[in-house]
Amino acid sequence: MHDCADGLMRDLLPDFVNETLPERERAMVAGHVAACADCAAEIGLIRSARAAYPAPPVRVARIVAALPSAASIEHRRPRPPAPRRWLVAAAAAIVLVGGVTVLAHRDVGRGGDRGTLQSTASTAANGRRGIGSGGFTIGGESELNSDQLRSLLRAIDTVSVLPSTEPETSRHPQGNQLGEVIN
Amino acid sequence: MGVPSRPDDASVDAALIERWKRGDQRAAAEIVDRHAQALARFAASSGERHEIDELVQDTFVRAFNSLDRFRADSSLRTWLFTILRRLVLDRRRSERRQRNRVELEEGHAVQAYDALDGLVAEETAQRVKVAIERLSPLQKEVFLLRVTEGMAYGEIAELVGSTEGACRVHYHNAMRAVKEFLDDA
């Protein structure tokens, strides 16, 4: 028994025997087999193999009777546990406390603005009082007397420009760039 | 070019599964009717001799118990064959353990083989069967799934855990070995 040279056709032979080919391909294979003794012999072999392994009898009704229904499976399927009462109560309490806290914070914020202004005014008054009385507190850490404070303010006035973080191109007094001079 | 499988199979099965999910138990009967014979033949060709009916029933019961979670990544047929194949392997493992405990009587295997041979009437079919039984287990499995069930190589590959190309090679090697055996006999 030889193999047909047409591998594609040989691949289709089991489907031809099992009658699973679309009509167009079935007709194509049938036409080929009619003219090809090797493929005809292979089809005979495939049919013999199928006959050699017959399907044993199966009692379909018995199998169907043993099957569950979709509803029974749905019923058996474990459901997510129902939330417990204490858990619900705890969650409600957290939400309540959280809400109250936010509201209180918001009120404090509004009042806080007023409070800040009041506090600032009070600090300024204290400062005036501090200056007037010869002392001023910075951050509550150290105390400056009036003279020290005046000298500090004068020193601040002398600082006209803060140093830039960007490097600038410097020019040498002779007109060359600094880099050129160094090199 | 891949060998075409039955184009309507998957859609028909999908429709039946949907009907069953909606409570139509007749759809379950249709599913069993469509696949039970092929599963029984596969079990028998895998070497199962006894209680094939129970094996097939067990396959369907397991499949239906998780059918609501079945995703159509593979066809229902391939899925059923996969379940059956696992059951056969489990049964063999269990039998092997049992054999380790109780020594098997010599006559059992011979009797079963003779009884099965009696089912095969035709002489050519008997010779072909002898040739197939000489194949390696994987070659035999691929060959029979292709020949008796008309499964596509892709389906077979999914079932046996191999590749489509490898299954094609197994099939053609098996066919060549069977032919050579028959030519020599």
Primary descriptors:
heterodimer, A: 183 residues, mainly alpha, 8 helices, B: 185 residues
What do these coordinates show?
The complex is a heterodimer of chains A (183) and B (185). Chain A is built from 8 helices and 2 strands, in the order H-H-H-H-H-H-E-E-H-H. Chain A has helices spanning 7-17, 23-35, 37-52, 60-66, 70-76, 85-132, 146-158, 178-182; strands spanning 135-138, 142-145. In chain A, helix 1 packs across helix 2 (23-35), helix 1 (7-17) packs parallel to helix 3 (37-52) and helix 2 crosses helix 3 (37-52). Mean pLDDT of chain A is 73; it is low at 112-135 and 175-183. In chain A, 66% of the residues lie in helices and 4% in strands. In chain A, a hairpin with a 3-residue loop joins strand 1 and strand 2 (142-145). The longest helix of chain A is centred in the middle third of the chain and has 48 residues, at 85-132. Helices cover 76% and strands 0% of the residues of chain B. Chain B has 9 helices and no strands. Chain B has helices at residues 9-21, 25-45, 52-65, 76-101, 106-119, 123-133, 137-148, 153-160, 164-184. The relative contact order of chain B is 0.11. Mean pLDDT of chain B is 83; it is low at 1-5 and 103-121. Chains A and B meet through helix 1, helix 3, helix 4 and helix 5 of A and helix 2, helix 3, helix 6, helix 7 and helix 9 of B.
Task: Reconstruct the topology from this structure.
The complex is a heterodimer of chains A (183) and B (185).
Chain A: H1 7-17, H2 23-35, H3 37-52, H4 60-66, H5 70-76, H6 85-132, E1 135-138, E2 142-145, H7 146-158, H8 178-182
Chain B: H1 9-21, H2 25-45, H3 52-65, H4 76-101, H5 106-119, H6 123-133, H7 137-148, H8 153-160, H9 164-184
Helix pairs in contact in B: 1-2, 2-3, 2-4, 2-7, 3-4, 4-8, 6-9, 7-8, 7-9, 8-9
